[in-house]
Structures are given as structure tokens and as C-alpha cells.
Design a protein that fits this description.
Layout lengths: L1 E2 L2 E2 L1 E7 L9 E8 L8 H12 L7 E7 L3 H9 L3 E12 L2 E11 L4
Parallel strand pairs: 4-5
Antiparallel strand pairs: 1-2, 3-4, 5-7, 6-7
Protein name: Phosphinothricin acetyltransferase
Keywords: Acyltransferase, Transferase
Organism: Anoxybacillus flavithermus NBRC 109594
């Protein structure tokens, strides 16, 4: 992603679980450099990705967010993702056990 002439972040989609049964489901990840947060860029890029999903036969998006990452949770919920799962203490980040929230969104086709 660029803002003006600067790269401000990235977004990625990757296949979920690697099995054919999940071919229409993708995992989404997004990162914005701290200097570009709070400007509505995250919301705009997520909306664009959601809009483009039908072109790639994606009907479900999943996001995996650390439970303590309130800005990311707020961002995903603001574009229609819902909380679909909660995994307590499944990760260790900086020596601290962290919970993981799974968010999901069904993508309408047309």
C-alpha cells in the first residue's frame, strides 16, 4: 500500500488450511506502519479487498488477531467481520502468553 509516495503497509491473502475443501476461504492479514494509522487507510484497503474477493472465487475471509490488539479488532469489526472463535493462550509473544481471536466474514457473490 502506498500513501502519497510512501509505502505505508501491506495486505495479504493466503489459502486457508491448504485443503481443497477450503478453496473459497482465504486468510487475510494487514499491517500499517504506525505513522499511517488512524487515517482510515486500513478500513479502505479492507473494503477494497472484500470488494475484489468474488473475482477470485473467495466467499469467506478469516483473520487471526491477538486478543489484546484492540485497534485491529476494531478495524475488522468495522468492515463487517464477526468474532467466530477464541483460542486462549495459544501463542507466546515477548514472553507473554496471548489469546487469539478468529474473525470471519462471508462475502456476497454479486
Amino acid at each position: 500500500m502506498e500513501y502519497g509516495d510512501e509505502v505505508c503497509g501491506w495486505v495479504s491473502l493466503q489459502s486457508f488450511y491448504g485443503r481443497p475443501a477450503y478453496h473459497a476461504t482465504a486468510e487475510i492479514s494487514i499491517y500499517l506502519h504506525e505513522n499511517f494509522r488512524g487515517k482510515g487507510l486500513g478500513k479502505r484497503i479492507l473494503a477494497k479487498v472484500i470488494e475484489e474477493c468474488p473475482k477470485f472465487s473467495i466467499d469467506t475471509l478469516l483473520g487471526f488477531i491477538f486478543a489484546h490488539n484492540e485497534p485491529s479488532m476494531k478495524l475488522f469489526l468495522s468492515v463487517g467481520f464477526e468474532k467466530w472463535g477464541y483460542l486462549p493462550e495459544v501463542a507466546q509473544l515477548d514472553g507473554i502468553k496471548r489469546d487469539l481471536v478468529i474473525v470471519g466474514k462471508k462475502i456476497p457473490h454479486f
